[in-house]
Amino acid sequence: MARAYIFKRFERFWHWAQAALIIAMLLTGFEVHGSYRLFGWGRAAGLHTSVAWALIGLWLFAIFWHFTTGEWRQYLPTTDKLGAVLRYYLTGIFSDEPHPFRVTRLSKHNPAQRLAYLLVKVIINPLIWVSGLLYLYYNELGATGTVIASGLGLGAIALVHTAAAFLMLAFLIGHVYLATTGHTPLARVRAMITGWEQLADEPEPETRKIPAQGVST
Fold first, then answer.
1. Hey, which residues does 154 pair with through a beta bridge?
2. What is the pTM of this model?
3. Region 199-208: what's the mean pLDDT?
């Protein structure tokens, strides 16, 4: 198999740091919600807030990096080969069909991935951060007479925040599952560690033997 250097150093750092921070937020957030006891409520609440600010800082820097390097174009949605990719994930993957999308440095994410990342960036992330900040500063906003804070109850804000957390958890589970669907279960994980992606070889084109022509004298 051929290899190509696909994922840059910052992309790999951003990916794994974001994953660690999101998992930490889920662990502490669900404990604050009362789902289980791991750190203790007070410590979990403090960790949740600290990790949230760290993730906000990471995302702001990542947004800056993506726009200054032009890598933001990797996330533009497209319908090119979308139907083929969806059919592959629904049926083809179980019959060992080849993936219809080939990774390159200029096109790192297939159409289904681009739509999933768009969903995260324009729906799940804003829901998490807006509801989280409203919850964190609810008393301060209420004291200033802010319309948003006074028009929403704390329970409703917490419900939206929890729903967004479940959406993020669902995305994380799907992301981990699809990460194991390369030509080996750890191939894509390895690519996100080293930056090098193993590319499937192109099928050899069929050649037709042309009979030698006689030479007339």
1. none
2. 0.84
3. 48
Give the whole-angstrom CA distance, residue 195 versus residue 1: 16
The candidate with the shortest Cα–Cα distance to 179, out of 193, 167, 159, 163, is 193
Q: Give one word for 34, left, alpha or beta, with left for phi > 0 and alpha for psi -120 to 50.
A: left
At 217 the pLDDT is: 36
> By mean pLDDT, which of 44-53, 165-174, 188-197, 208-217 is the weakest?
208-217
5/104 Cα distance (integer angstroms): 9
Structural tokens at position 150: 């006074």
Q: Which of 12, 10, 1 is nearest to 190 (CA)?
A: 12
Question: Which residue carries 């768009």 as its tokens?
Answer: 118
The DSSP secondary-structure symbol of 182 reads S
pLDDT number for residue 102: 87
Q: What are 206's two structure tokens? A: 């069929």
Measured distance CA(75)–CA(103) in Å, rounded: 14
For each of the domains in the chain, give its residue range(s) and CATH number, in order of start.
2-199 (1.20.950.20)
